[in-house]
Structures are given as structure tokens and as C-alpha cells.
Specification:
Largest sheet: 6 strands, mixed
Strand order of the largest sheet: 6-5-4-10-11-12
Shape: elongated
Strand content: over 45%
Structural class: mainly beta
């Protein structure tokens, strides 16, 4: 996520906007205090929502408000969650939900992103719309089986909600952490009810969890390995439970086991909670044996009870068995899965052979396990049941004279060179009990370095390519070392095998790639040689029509090896953001200012000047179905063609003409790449020059230390051509001035007059005269210049001031 981007947005949303200047530390501190208060309020509101979830309440209404949402629970309590209580609202809150047609809807508007498959299957679990690092919304599309950039900007979004199934996912941006505060709120009574379900760890143990007791044998006299009662529980037992609602707070919940012995009733505690953690709806409980736990073969029915202040729930019972194994009968073996995915194949050989890709590595602890070979049908892999041995691996004496292999911390590697292929090394694997270092078993492992593991592999590269504004093709160059390593081939083997190419185009109606005889003129693929290296490449043409946009795939089939190199590309037009030139915008309208042609003002202007994107090819068109006849739009020039005079022949107020609706499109190679953006253009008159009110007269007397001061500001007037009074007798009309973005009047005298004793306050217009010590021999006129700057120019005026001589 682009945290700087979002943080800046939220800061703007929380601050109270002001056109003044910060003049003291107190003002700054007050703003910081306001932000802290608002963040505290946010935390408090989210805590209140969490409390409702803990109480088993559910959402009956979730209504968008400016900058947030109002949440109403089943007990009729309501909370409003916003991005800032007293600041500017920023962007409106956003709501995502799955419609009855299976597509994602954003603020009740259907998107192209399908959330539910054709047969009703859900998309990828847990993938809801979210904001990506580029500031756009991302959504999972079951049609393409991908999480995709929707191209929909999330700029300014600091609060959003996703309705997914029976839950709302509420996300509120936290300026302090730079992350979203998220909470899952149940939408139905069923979803709000506390529910606990046991999650089996292994598919072949659907209802059982096994705690193994490793016995040293009753007749063992080795006191170093003699435990209490000759047996001891090897590890804590870990249980996983799915808890809903997923956002419930279990930090203070009472959690314990209900245990019934299947064979007989036990006295005292059998199973206790040693530790617990809760994340993403999964409660993980680490259990330890209680005083009544039998270390001999027993079976227990176990359920978990979870209780908070408002609710309690009990999981279904599952089977816990306690069985004893003599650790003197353990051995090392290799467990592999068969074609059905079951670990039914077990290699108990004295020496276990294994292939190692010459560029890969082999972690013995992940590959080998221990089991009781006298009853291996019952115990395929003791690691499943909590038994955690550790391994020591060393080269067998006299092995690997060419130093092709290394081993460190139980991880075996080759030297990474193709020269190691065909060589092998035997290692001695020793397995120990973590509790006391007792050596359980030892086995020889012979590792062979191979160029390619005997399975078909595919190297795939997928990307989205944005066309450029220039007519420049794009080339993707494969990283061949990455290709060789992935496929397990040397470069010589790869290129000697040769290749063929297949082209595919994505068929949206069939939701699959369809092979074609050509690439539709969009992509081409082949081989090139640069910098002493051969490589595969794919070229993407830049000059495309809308019909050619879409997804493409090239498959390089590498000889008869079964290996493939695949390149997938989604070709899209670039995402373009139009940047407004604020000199030509006011209150959301583009301003089309008049211009002087001869002695007449013509209401006409080029609309392209409203944007700063000078490198873009923009075209403006009238909205379809427009029936107005008082304007003309040709070659991006908008002209008002209606009469500028009323029935009496007087000039009308141009600014009161209804705005014109216009569509702006971005072109690439003369083709529109978007659906256009609707804007409104408003006509405006320029302002006349500044004049003085009738009979305005300013005089003062030549004095060295004058007592009288002249207030020049009260005399000025400023109107538009249409007669709008921007300034009247020195008073500015804020509304009209705001329309023209007219600034306060500025006053100044010439350097020559200033040297002789004239001065004027630039902002208040207060004029004083203080001669330079030489008395005036005649009356003198000082011309004070006054200016008002506005959006389309500067209005200028002159105020004459007479200084009378005393001689």
C-alpha cells in the first residue's frame, strides 16, 4: 500500500482548512491536539464495535455517510465511523459487496470483476477488494483466476467496507500507524453467535489427535535415560479451532478443555491449557497433560470450551489417544506421497537413495522421519503426532573426494555447478530425541546430483503491460539463468533440445485461452543473441486498436523434454490522470473566459488550456443528446453563440449563462483510450479596470511631520464588463470576488515620489506625505497605482493625490 499517499490524504481530511497563516505555536499545538482527539475517537469507536461483536450482536444496517459509515446493531445502538470528525470530509466512504449475479459492486455500481464462479463456487478464500500500492482498487476475478488491478482509483479513500457473505469487513485508515484498522462485523444472528469448530491437522486423522509417550522399557538399567514411571509425554499437544466471528476478542476469554475418558471416568485434570493464540479466525491452543492424564494407552473425547462475558461455546468432541512406543524400536525412513496424495509409500531400506537437483538443496529434517518399524501401519510418521526429533548429518568417511557436496545444519547442497551432475555422496543421518539427546536411530542416505528432477516443469512469467504514449514497441527478455534453474537444465541441454512456439488469445466468453495460428499482430516471440548470450524474448506492439487489447500467451515447448517456458501478458491502455490547470477552474467548473477582439469581447476559448497534461492528445466533444444551440464546439474551441444583450439591448451577465456539458477524451495514436470524463464549462467576463467613486478627491498639505492621513481604499470601484460589482467604494463583495479569484487591492507609489516623501500602505491604502526637508514651492500631484489580480489578468487604476504647498 502506498502509505505516504494515503497518509497525506488523511492528514488533509483531518485538518481544518484555512487561508490564514500560522502565527503561534499554540495554533499548531491546537491542530495536533485536534488530530490526537480524532484518532482517540476513532480508536474508541472501533473498540465499541469490538465490544458489540463480543456480545454476539450483529449488523442490521450499515449506511454510508460523508467520509465514513453509520453502523447500527441488532440492539438498535448506532456508531458513526469517519476519517476525521471536524476536518474536511475527504472522499466519500466506499462500499463493496457481491451482487445476486455474482459480481463485485462498488457503491451499488456493477464492476467487471466476478466474485462467484459459474457453478456457484466462491473465489479465493479471504480475497476481498483492497487498495494496492499504486492507489487503485484490486479485486479477485474468478473468470481469470487472478487478483487484478481494477483501474479504479481509491484516491482519498480512508474508510471502506466489504460485504462478503454473512459478514461486513470494515476498514478505517489510521494516520499514526500508516495501516488500516480492520474489523469483521457479523451481518446475521447466525454469524454473530460464538462458534468453535475443531480443525484436524492431517487428512488421515480427521477426528483424532495422538499424543505419543516414548517408553525406555521396564528392564532398561541406564539411569541416564530413566524417566518417571518409565514414560513421559514427548511434546505439548497443539489443537487448532476455527472460531467465528473471526474478529471476536478472546484476550480475556476463559478457555478450557472438557475431557471424557472413553474407557473409564478419570479423577482430576486430564488436559490443561498451557498457551493460546488467536489470529485470522483460528484459535491455536497448546495443551499439557494434567495430573490424571494416563501415560499408558488411553482414549479421550476432548472438546474446547470458550467463554467471554457475554457468550460461551463448546466445540464438537474429537478423539485424543495416548499410546506408548518403545523408542529403542524406532528407525529412519523416507515417506513419499502416492498418486492419490496419500503417504502410503515408505522407504525402509538400509541405505535410502535420493536425487538432488544440482542447483537445489535438501533439508534432511523435511525429507526423513522416524517411525516404529514394528507397527508402521499404525505410525507412518511420528512427527505428525507431536514427536520432534533433531538430526545430525555428516559425510560418510571416504566419500566425495571431488568435494561436489556440502552439508551444514542438516541441509545438503552441491557446489551449484553442472560438473557435479552424475556424482553421488553417502551421508550418515543420526536422529536424536530433543528431550534428553538420546540417539534414536541412524541411517545411510545416498544423494545423487542430477541435472533435472524427473518431473515436467514449467517456467511462467506473467505481467500487465501498459502501452506507452509514444509509438514504441515493448520487448520482454527472459532471465535465462532463472529459466535454466527452474527447469533443471544446463544451457547446453536447453538450447540443444530446440523449441517450438504456440500462441494463445484469452477468450472472455469461454473463460479460457484459445490457441491461434498467429498472435493477432500484437505479440511475436523468438530468440536473440546479445552480449555473448542467447535468450528468448516476446515483443508487444504498441500501436493497437481497442479490439486488440486483452490477454495473450506464448508457450515455448522445449524439444521433447516436456518442459515449457510460458509468457502471459495483459495488454492495457496506460492509466492517465488529467491534471487541472487551476487558473481555469473554479468551484468544479472549467472557466471559459472571454477575450477582446477589436472592440468586442468574444466568449470563446480552447478547452485544452484547462489541463496541464501538455503531452497528452485531448479531444473535447459535446455530450450525446445535447439539444442546446447557444454554443459551438469545434476543434476543442468552445464559443458562445447566443446573444450577449437583453431585450433592451443591454449587456447581459455572461456568468449567468448555463454551464455547457462537455466530454473530454484521451487519445493515443488518434484512438480514444477511455470512456471519457464529463466536465462542465462556464462562461465568464473579464473585469474592467479600477475606477474611483464619483467626486472622490484626495488632498493633503506639505508638512515635515504631518498629522493627517488619507484613506485611499474607500474610493475604488471594480466591476466586470457585465456590471458585476466586485469592489464598491472600497468594499469587496466576497462572493463575486471569489468567482473571479480576485485578490485584495494593492497600492504603491513610484520610487521618485517615495524619495520626495510620499508613502502608502500596500494593503490598507493609507497615504501619508512627509517632505524630505525641502518645502514644496508649488502644489504637487502624486499618482498612486492600485491593482487587483484575478484569475484572467490584472485590473489597474490610478488615484491622484494633491499635496498643497505652504509657500
Amino acid at each position: 500500500m502506498n502509505k505516504k499517499f494515503l497518509s497525506a490524504i488523511l492528514f488533509g481530511a483531518l485538518m481544518v482548512s484555512s487561508t490564514g497563516t500560522f502565527v503561534s505555536c499554540k495554533d499548531y499545538d491546537d491542530d495536533i491536539d485536534n488530530i490526537n482527539k480524532e484518532l482517540s475517537t476513532l480508536k474508541g469507536d472501533l473498540s465499541a464495535l469490538q465490544a458489540k461483536v463480543n456480545e454476539g450482536k450483529w449488523i442490521t444496517s450499515l449506511a454510508p455517510t460523508t467520509g465514513g459509515f453509520t453502523v447500527t446493531f441488532s440492539d438498535n445502538t448506532s456508531y458513526t465511523i469517519t476519517n476525521g470528525k471536524d476536518g474536511a470530509a475527504g472522499a466519500d466512504a466506499v462500499k463493496w459487496e457481491i451482487g445476486t449475479d455474482g459480481f463485485w459492486y462498488k457503491n451499488d455500481v456493477k464492476t467487471e470483476y466476478q466474485a462467484v464462479g459459474q457453478a456457484g463456487e466462491a473465489g479465493v478464500a479471504g480475497v476481498s477488494p483492497y487498495i494496492g500500492e499504486n492507489g487503485n482498487w484490486f479485486a479477485y476475478n474468478t473468470e481469470t483466476k487472478e487478483v487484478e488491478d481494477t483501474g479504479i482509483s481509491a484516491a482519498g479513500t480512508s474508510t471502506y467496507v466489504v460485504k462478503n457473505g454473512d459478514n461486513y469487513e470494515l476498514h478505517v485508515y489510521n494516520q499514526t500507524t500508516g495501516e488500516y484498522e480492520s474489523i469483521v462485523l457479523p451481518a446475521t444472528a447466525a454469524a454473530a453467535a460464538l462458534n468453535v469448530v475443531f480443525m484436524p491437522t492431517y487428512s488421515d486423522m480427521q477426528t483424532k489427535v495422538v499424543a505419543i509417550n516414548i517408553s525406555v522399557g521396564d528392564d532398561l538399567n541406564d539411569k541416564n535415560h530413566l524417566w518417571d514411571n518409565n514414560v513421559s509425554l514427548t511434546n505439548d499437544i497443539v489443537f487448532n479451532y476455527r472460531v467465528s466471528p473471526a474478529s471476536i476478542d478472546l484476550a480475556k476469554a476463559n478457555i478450557g478443555f472438557l475431557v471424557n475418558e472413553v474407557q473409564s471416568r478419570a479423577a482430576g485434570s486430564i488436559l490443561d491449557v498451557a498457551d493460546k493464540s488467536f489470529a485470522d479466525g483460528v484459535l491455536t491452543v497448546k495443551a499439557k497433560a494434567g495430573e490424571a492424564f494416563s501415560l499408558k494407552n488411553k482414549k479421550y473425547a476432548v472438546a474446547l470450551q470458550v467463554q467471554n462475558d457475554a457468550q460461551s461455546a463448546i466445540s464438537t468432541y474429537h478423539l485424543l489417544t495416548s499410546q506408548t512406543i518403545d523408542r529403542r524400536n524406532l528407525t529412519v525412513f523416507e515417506a513419499r506421497k502416492d498418486d492419490n496424495g496419500d503417504e502410503s509409500y515408505m522407504n525402509w531400506s538400509t541405505t535410502i537413495p535420493m536425487d538432488l537437483l544440482y542447483t537445489g538443496e535438501l533439508n534432511v529434517a523435511d525429507t526423513l522421519s522416524v517411525g516404529d518399524y514394528t507397527s508402521y501401519n499404525s505410525y507412518k510418521d511420528l512427527r505428525k503426532y507431536g514427536f520432534a526429533p533433531y538430526y545430525e548429518v555428516a559425510k560418510k568417511a571416504g566419500e566425495d573426494k571431488g568435494n561436489y557436496f556440502t552439508v551444514e545444519n542438516g541441509v545438503i547442497k552441491t557446489n551449484g555447478q553442472i560438473s557435479s551432475v552424475g556424482h553421488e555422496c553417502t551421508f550418515i543421518v543420526s536422529v536424536y530425541d530433543k528431550k534428553d539427546g538420546y540417539k534414536l536411530a541412524e541411517k545411510e542416505l545416498t544423494v545423487s546430483s542430477v541435472e533435472k528432477i524427473a518431473t515436467t516443469k514449467t517456467y511462467t512469467k506473467s505481467e500487465t503491460h501498459e502501452l506507452t504514449l509514444e509509438s514504441k514497441d515493448y520487448r520482454f527478455k527472459f532471465d535465462m539463468n532463472d529459466v535454466y534453474n527452474t527447469l533443471g537444465m544446463s544451457s547446453q541441454t536447453f538450447w540443444s533440445a530446440g523449441y517450438t512456439r504456440e500462441y494463445y488469445i484469452w477468450d472472455a466468453e469461454r473463460s479460457e485461452y484459445v490457441q491461434t495460428s498467429s498472435s493477432n499482430g500484437v505479440i511475436s516471440a523468438g530468440t536473440a543473441y546479445e552480449n555473448n548470450e542467447s535468450f528468448l524474448y516476446v515483443n508487444v506492439k504498441n500501436i493497437l486498436t481497442k479490439d486488440q487489447l486483452g490477454k495473450y500467451k506464448v508457450v515455448f515447448k522445449i524439444g521433447n523434454t516436456g518442459a515449457e517456458v510460458v509468457y502471459e501478458v495483459k495488454v492495457v491502455y496506460p492509466e492517465v490522470t488529467l491534471v487541472k490547470d487551476n487558473d481555469y477552474w473554479k468551484d468544479g467548473y472549467m472557466i471559459n473566459a472571454g477575450k477582446l477582439v477589436g472592440s468586442n469581447y468574444i466568449m470563446s476559448g480552447d478547452l485544452r488550456r484547462g489541463y496541464k497534461n501538455k503531452d497528452l492528445d485531448l479531444v473535447f466533444e459535446t455530450v450525446a443528446g445535447e439539444t442546446r444551440t447557444d454554443f459551438d464546439l469545434t476543434n476543442n474551441i468552445l464559443t458562445y453563440t447566443g446573444s450577449c444583450n437583453d431585450k433592451e439591448g443591454n449587456r447581459i451577465n455572461i456568468s449567468k449563462i448555463d454551464p455547457v456539458d462537455v466530454m473530454v477524451f484521451v487519445l493515443i495514436n488518434g484512438q480514444k483510450i477511455d470512456n471519457g470524463t464529463k466536465i462542465q464549462v462556464k462562461f465568464a467576463d473579464p473585469l474592467k479596470n479600477i475606477t474611483l467613486k464619483k467626486d472622490a478627491k484626495f488632498e493633503t498639505t506639505d508638512k515635515k511631520n504631518p498629522a493627517d492621513k488619507l484613506q485611499l481604499n474607500s474610493a475604488i470601484n471594480l466591476v466586470s464588463i457585465a456590471g458585476e460589482k466586485v469592489i464598491e467604494n472600497g468594499t469587496m463583495d466576497a462572493t463575486i470576488a471569489g468567482y473571479y479569484n480576485a485578490q485584495a487591492a494593492k497600492f504603491e507609489v513610484s520610487e521618485e515620489d517615495a524619495a520626495k516623501g510620499a508613502s502608502v500602505n500596500a494593503t490598507t491604502g493609507e497615504f501619508t506625505w512627509q517632505n524630505d526637508g525641502v518645502a514644496l514651492t508649488a502644489n504637487k500631484t502624486i499618482n498612486v497605482k492600485v491593482t487587483v489580480t484575478y484569475t484572467w489578468g490584472v485590473a489597474v487604476g490610478t488615484i491622484p493625490v494633491t499635496v498643497k504647498s505652504n509657500l
